């Protein structure tokens, strides 16, 4: 019997949108162990079962692909951090802090690469990073029932910078318990906004 007569499942042709989503998903799956700037196009293409040149049919440049993965990761983080509708203001801030610490513990290397990439002058990372922080600042201002003005935005942004740095170093070398870390972060935020 010829091999061609053996029934097989028909090969499904992916739409361009489906293929782009698949390639971004592969990037997301690699992020827990590989910062986005270190993803190799060859590895992504191999996992997708396509050639490197075909990947560039869906993403014109490596930077465009990295930007898409970075944006998807930021959206995923925001979905994880943002409070559920109907959550009390106190639980919104405390819950967001707790989830953020858990996020950094789980995705430490990738998250640090995201933060450092934004600070290191990668414009495509910086843009996504700034958008993400602006959304988190807005959530914090709303949860704390603070007016959205320049002064309070500056204070909450400064607190986010402090939080990123402390949580990142704590995840690497814990110098206090997790509850102590969360209490300290909340205390610093409360003190800052009390003087606003």
From TrEMBL:
InterPro entries: DesT_TetR_C, Homeodomain-like_sf, HTH-type_TetR-like_transc_reg, HTH_TetR
Any single Pfam family the record assigns to this protein: TetR_C_46
Record key words, sorted: DNA-binding, Transcription, Transcription regulation
Molecular function via GO: DNA-binding transcription factor activity; transcription cis-regulatory region binding
Record feature DNA-binding region, as residue ranges: 40-59
Organism superkingdom: Bacteria
Keyword DNA-binding annotated: yes
DNA-binding in keyword set: yes
Annotated HTH tetR-type domain residues: 17-77
UniProt-recorded name of the protein: Transcriptional regulator, TetR family
The organism's taxonomic lineage, starting at the top: Bacteria, Bacillati, Actinomycetota, Actinomycetes, Geodermatophilales
């Amino acid at each position: 019997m010829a091999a061609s007569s053996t029934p097989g499942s028909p090969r499904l042709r992916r739409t361009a949108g489906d293929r782009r989503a698949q390639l971004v998903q592969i990037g997301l799956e690699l992020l827990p162990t590989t910062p986005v700037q270190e993803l190799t196009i060859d590895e992504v293409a191999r996992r997708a079962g396509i050639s490197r040149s075909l990947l560039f049919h869906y993403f014109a440049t490596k930077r465009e692909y990295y930007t898409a993965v970075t944006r998807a990761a930021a959206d995923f983080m925001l979905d994880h951090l943002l409070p559920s509708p109907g959550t009390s203001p106190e639980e919104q801030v405390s819950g967001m802090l707790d989830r953020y610490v858990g996020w950094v513990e789980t995705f430490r290397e990738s998250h640090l690469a995201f933060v450092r990439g934004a600070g290191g002058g990668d414009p495509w990372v910086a843009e996504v990073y700034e958008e993400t922080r602006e959304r988190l600042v807005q959530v914090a201002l709303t949860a704390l029932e603070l007016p959205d003005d320049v002064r309070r935005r500056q204070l909450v942004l400064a607190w986010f910078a402090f939080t990123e740095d402390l949580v990142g170093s704590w995840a690497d070398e814990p110098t206090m318990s997790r509850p102590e870390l969360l209490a300290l972060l909340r205390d610093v935020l409360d003190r800052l906004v009390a003087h606003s």
